[in-house]
Structures are given as C-alpha cells and as structure tokens.
C-alpha cells in the first residue's frame, strides 16, 4: 500500500512539474539563481566567462537581461535526477553526486527540455540508454567527466543535434567502431583525455572541429592526419608522420611525451601552425629540422627534455614569427650569438638546465626584441659587462642556481630590467652601485646566497626597487643604513637567517613598505626589538616573526614592559654569583615587571581610598568633640591645648 502511494505521489509530482513549470521553482536538493552571462565594460559588452564564449555567443544576447537561469544540485548525494526543478532552467549542475543510470527520456520526464548546459561529472554513471537525452535539442554543452562509462552507442547522442562541447575525460572507454559523434554535425570541442583509449573511431580523423583532446591515453601508432585546429595528443605512445598527412587547418599541436616516428623524413605540413609542443619526445637535431621546415608561422615552440645539441642545425632562423622558445633540459653547450638575430619578434627564451660556457668578452645572444631570459641551472661561473650587451631590452632575467660569485658589472647597460633573480648562487658581497643604472628595477631576488653586509653608508643604490628577497642567506647582522637608498621598498624578505636582533632605524625611513618577513630567525624579544615592532605597527606594516627567547610570536612584545634606562646604560660588572642569578631570571623578567606594576597600581588605589576615609572620620570627630569653639581662632586653639595639658 505504502509503495503504491509513493509511486502515485511521484507520478503526480512529475505531471505537476511538466504542466505547472512556475509552481516548482527549485527543490530542496537544488539552489536556483540567475547566472550573468555578460558584463558591461566602457567599450562594449563582453561575455562574463571567456570559456563559455563559444557556447553562448550565438544563442544569447544582452537583450535577454543578461541572465541565464541556473540550478545548482551538486554534492547532494543524489541517486537520480531531481524532480520539481523549474522548466525554465538553462544550466544544471549535477556533478559530484551518486547517479548511476540515465534512463530513456530522463530529462524529458522531469520537464527539463530547455537545458543548454548539463554538468554530470564525478558521478558513478555506467549506463546511458539510447534515448536518455531525448528532448534536449537546445543542449550545447555536456560534461560527463570521471564516471564509469565504458561504451557509447551510435545513437546515444542522436537528439543532441546542436551539441557544441562534449567532455568525457576520465572514463574507461572502449570505442573500436563506435561512431558516437556521427549525429553531432556542429560539434566543435571534444575531450577524451585519460580514457585508456587504445584506438580511435575512424570518423574522428575526418571530423572538422576546433579542439580535440586525446591526451593521456594508450594510443598505439596514431597517424597524424586530423582536420582540427587545436590537437592535444600528448602522453600516448607513438605518433607516425606521413608525407600524405593533411594538417592545413592545424593551429595548435601538442605531441609532448610521445615517440615521434618519421621513417621517410616527412615534414609537418601545417602552414597555419602557431603553437607546437614537442617536450620529452626524444627528438634529435635532425628530426626537428624536418618538423620545422616550411612552418614559419610558429609563434610558440616548446622543445624541453630532448636530445638537442646544436641550435644552428634546427632551422630556427626560418621561424620569423617566433615569440617564445623553450629549450630547457637538453644538451646544448654553445650556440652562435646570432642564432636568434632573424627572429625579430622573439621576446622569451628558456635555456634552463643546459651546461653553457659563454665567452668572457662576447655577448651571449644578439636579440634586440628579447624581454625575458631564463638561464637557471646552467653551471654559469662568470657573467661580465659583455654577457648581455646584445640583449639591451631585457626586462626579466633569471640566473638562479648557478655558480656565480660576482655580478657587479653584469647589468649596467640593461636600463629596462624590472626583475633580477640570482637565487642559489655564491654571491658574498655586492657593489652598492651594481644596480644603479637599472632605473626600472622592481624586484631583486638574492635568496640562498652567503651574503655578508659590511657597515657602509648604504648597501643598495636602487631608488625604484619595491621588492627584495634575502631569505636563507645565513645573515647575522643587518646594517642600519642598508635600505637608505631604496625609499620605495614595499616587500622585504629576511626570513630564515641567523638574525637575533634588529635596529628600528632600519625601517624608519621606509615610507612605502607594506610587508616585512623576518620569520625563522633566532630573535630575542627585548626592548630593542620592541622598538622595531612599534615602528612597523605605527606604519600599518604586515610583519611575520617568532621569538626564541622568550618563545612565541613577537607581537607579545606589545604587552611587555622593559626598563629602558637599564637596557641602554652600561652597569658595573656584577659578581659571578649575582651574574648567575640575573641570568636565570631573564626569562621571567618581563612577566614579573608586568605583575609588579599591576600590584603597585592596586595598592596605591586602596591606600588613597583608606586615606580619604580616615580624613573624613577625623574631621567629624573633631567637629563633634570641640563644638562651640571656632577652629579659625588662634586663641581658641591655645585654650583647647591649655585645657588638655592641665587635665
């Protein structure tokens, strides 16, 4: 009886949801709201989410009050689609639930046939019946990532004729002969990453799409012959190149972490190619020469972790539109300074983890357009005033973890430098004028260098510097005038050194400082450090520090009291016994001083009250005892005293 009643109620609810869409705006399991698609800017109207541009632009417009009705039903432990959701909902989030089965007419039965976007990722869906998506003619995006789907029939998406974006990442798919995309005439984005795929449906090779992601699978002997604009085929097994491969529509290609097989010396026939990733492909100089031939439109080239040795043999000079190149983790030891002289748009080079030996009296590179240069972990032992003379427009340079001990003259000609990173070298001293010509310098990173600061009028002459990092340098002492010529410093990192005390004058002249990090130092919380804290607090600086004596956060200094007179005056040397007693009481001294001060205040208050009471009582006694005598008359007082003495 109860079972029949439950079924009847369920049927009634479904009927009401279909017939009366305005009655059930949302269920307990969902939260409905209006999601804004557009935001207005000064120069026009833009899509609120750039990712959704392709899915909304042609369907919705600002004339629709810039709103899309959305139902959020995520993380609700749902085992089936929720009933009673408003039929006008366009987007529904059903991700991270426990849904296992999408039956025929699943969305039609609950009245949700106007859906445009459906999120069903991170459920346990294993079965999708052929008519599960019936009625969803307007659906443009379907996300089924990380479920338990293994097979898809050819008709499962036959009703989704307007589907643009299909994502099925993380499902263990077997698609030997399934043409599940055959009905998707406008499909533009398909994601099948991490699906354990061993082969691809043949139709994918001829499907014209904007984006295809088949990375992180187990594809064997993939023939590179797709009519796609962006193709991610990274982290599979083997990719074969053939002379007949037609890649004329390809613009972005990621083949990283594969073995590129090119038995007949085929060339990458992709005249519109702009971005090419070939990281960890075990390619050699000769292989790359064929791949880059006739692809002068490449703007971004990634070649890290290969077996490249001689840049001159790669044909890089023909890439006249090249803007960024990454050649880190290869076996390059030397290249001609003019290797990039024809790449007039080149702005970024990454040469990390190559064992370089630049000439002492010559430029490392000649490139007037270069702005960012990475030379980390390159075993560099020397850089001179000539090293960067051919790259005068550099804005960022990263020389971390080399063997440099002197950089005093290296950056004098680089007027546009904004960032200099020298972390993990062997620099002990710095010329105060090492960065005086870098008139746009903002960030200087000197962490993990054994720097020793001498007492001098100033250490750094860098008036535009806003950030300096000196952590893990084993610094024991900071001179008072260290930042005297860096008035615009905002961020100072002195963490994890061996500093036990600081002078408040170090920070007094810095009007722009916002953050100071001195954590990880063996600081002693005394009157001197309290002055430092006071200076930083009064200027609203965010600071981080811990004290080792007494142990705790250094902000406890705000509540401590010190005898500044004794703190600053030299006292005679006490006897050994007194010295031992004084040393043993140092830790408790601040707390005892605070307690003594509190007790003294209480005693003074009590004494004052008692004094007032006694005075009032004595006055009353005298008035009553000697009533009738004028206290103002001197004779009366003498008479009183005479009578007392005679008595």
SSE inventory with pairings:
Blueprint: H1 2-19, E1 31-36, E2 38-41, E3 44-47, H2 53-56, E4 67-72, E5 91-93, E6 101-102, E7 117-119, E8 127-128, E9 141-143, E10 165-167, E11 189-191, H3 203-206, E12 209-213, E13 222-223, E14 228-232, E15 238-240, E16 252-254, E17 259-261, E18 275-277, H4 285-292, E19 300-302, E20 324-326, E21 348-350, E22 372-374, E23 396-398, E24 419-421, E25 443-445, E26 467-469, E27 491-493, H5 505-508, E28 515-517, E29 523-524, H6 527-538, E30 542-544, E31 546-549, E32 551-553, H7 564-568, H8 576-584, H9 589-625, H10 634-646
Parallel strand pairs: 4-5, 5-7, 6-8, 7-9, 9-10, 10-11, 11-12, 12-14, 13-15, 14-16, 15-17, 16-18, 18-19, 19-20, 20-21, 21-22, 22-23, 23-24, 24-25, 25-26, 26-27, 27-28, 28-30, 29-31
Antiparallel strand pairs: 1-4, 2-3, 31-32
* C-alpha termini separation: 116 Å
Radius of gyration from the CA trace? Answer: 39 Å
> Structural class, from secondary structure content?
alpha/beta
Number of strands: 32
Largest sheet: 22 strands, mixed
CATH superfamily of the domain at 11-219: Ribonuclease Inhibitor
CATH fold call of the domain at 11-219? Leucine-rich repeat, LRR (right-handed beta-alpha superhelix)
What top-tier CATH class of the domain at 11-219 fits best?
Alpha Beta
Oligomer: single chain
């Amino acid at each position: 009886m109860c079972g029949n009643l439950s079924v009847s109620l369920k049927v009634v609810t479904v009927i009401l949801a279909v017939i009366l869409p305005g009655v059930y705006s949302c269920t307990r399991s969902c939260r409905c709201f209006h999601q804004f698609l557009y935001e207005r800017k000064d120069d026009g109207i833009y899509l609120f989410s750039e990712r959704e541009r392709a899915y909304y632009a042609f369907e919705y417009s600002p004339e629709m009050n810039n709103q899309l009705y959305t139902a959020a039903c995520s993380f609700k432990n749902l085992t089936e689609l929720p009933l009673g959701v408003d039929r006008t909902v366009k987007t529904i989030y059903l991700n991270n639930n426990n849904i296992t089965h999408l039956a025929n007419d699943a969305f039609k039965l609950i009245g949700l046939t106007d859906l445009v976007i459906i999120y069903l990722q991170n459920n346990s869906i294993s079965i999708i019946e052929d008519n599960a998506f019936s009625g969803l003619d307007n659906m443009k995006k379907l996300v089924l990532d990380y479920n338990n789907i293994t097979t898809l029939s050819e008709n499962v998406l036959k009703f989704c004729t307007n589907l643009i974006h299909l994502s099925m990442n993380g499902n263990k798919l077997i698609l030997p002969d399934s043409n599940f995309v055959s009905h998707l005439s406008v499909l533009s984005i398909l994601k099948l990453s991490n699906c354990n795929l061993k082969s691809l449906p043949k139709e994918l090779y001829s499907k014209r799409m904007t984006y295809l992601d088949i990375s992180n699978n187990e594809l064997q002997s993939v023939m590179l012959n797709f009519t796609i604009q962006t193709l991610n085929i990274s982290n599979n097994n083997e990719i074969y190149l053939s002379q007949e491969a037609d890649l004329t529509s390809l613009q972005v290609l990621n083949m990283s972490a594969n073995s590129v097989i090119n038995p007949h010396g085929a060339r990458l026939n992709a005249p519109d190619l702009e971005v090419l990733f070939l990281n960890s492909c075990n390619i050699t100089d000769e292989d790359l020469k064929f791949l880059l031939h006739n692809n002068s439109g490449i703007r971004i080239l990634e070649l890290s972790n290969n077996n490249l040795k001689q840049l001159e043999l790669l044909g890089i000079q023909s890439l006249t539109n090249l803007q960024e190149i990454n050649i880190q983790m290869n076996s390059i030891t030397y290249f001609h300074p003019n290797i990039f002289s024809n790449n007039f748009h080149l702005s970024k080079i990454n040469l990390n983890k190559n064992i370089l030996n630049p000439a002492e009296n010559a430029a490392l590179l000649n490139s007037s357009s270069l702005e960012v240069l990475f030379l980390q972990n390159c075993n560099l032992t020397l850089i001179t005033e000539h090293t960067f003379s051919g790259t005068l427009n550099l804005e960022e340079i990263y020389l971390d973890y080399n063997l440099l001990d002197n950089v005093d003259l290296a950056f004098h000609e680089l007027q546009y430098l904004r960032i200099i990173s020298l972390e993990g070298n062997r620099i002990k001293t710095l010329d105060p004028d090492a960065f005086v010509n870098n008139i746009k310098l903002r960030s200087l990173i000197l962490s993990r260098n054994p720097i020793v600061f001498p007492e001098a009028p100033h250490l750094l002459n860098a008036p535009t510097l806003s950030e300096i990092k000196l952590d893990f340098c084993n610094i024991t002492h900071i001179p008072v005038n260290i930042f005297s010529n860096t008035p615009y410093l905002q961020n100072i990192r002195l963490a994890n050194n061996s500093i036990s005390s600081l002078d408040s004058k170090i920070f007094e002249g810095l009007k722009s400082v916002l953050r100071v990090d001195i954590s990880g130092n063996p600081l002693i919380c005394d009157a001197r450090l309290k002055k430092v804290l006071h200076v930083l607090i009064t200027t609203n600086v965010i600071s981080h520090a811990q004290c080792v004596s007494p142990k705790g956060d250094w902000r406890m200094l705000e509540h401590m009291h010190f005898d500044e007179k004794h703190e600053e005056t030299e006292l005679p040397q006490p006897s050994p016994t007194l010295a031992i007693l004084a040393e043993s009481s140092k830790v408790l001294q601040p707390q005892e001083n605070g307690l003594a001060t509190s007790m003294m205040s209480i005693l003074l208050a009590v004494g004052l009250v008692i004094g007032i009471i006694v005075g009032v009582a004595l006055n009353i006694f005298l008035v009553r005892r000697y009533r009738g005598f004028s206290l103002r008359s001197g004779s009366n007082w003498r008479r009183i005293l005479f009578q007392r003495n005679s008595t």
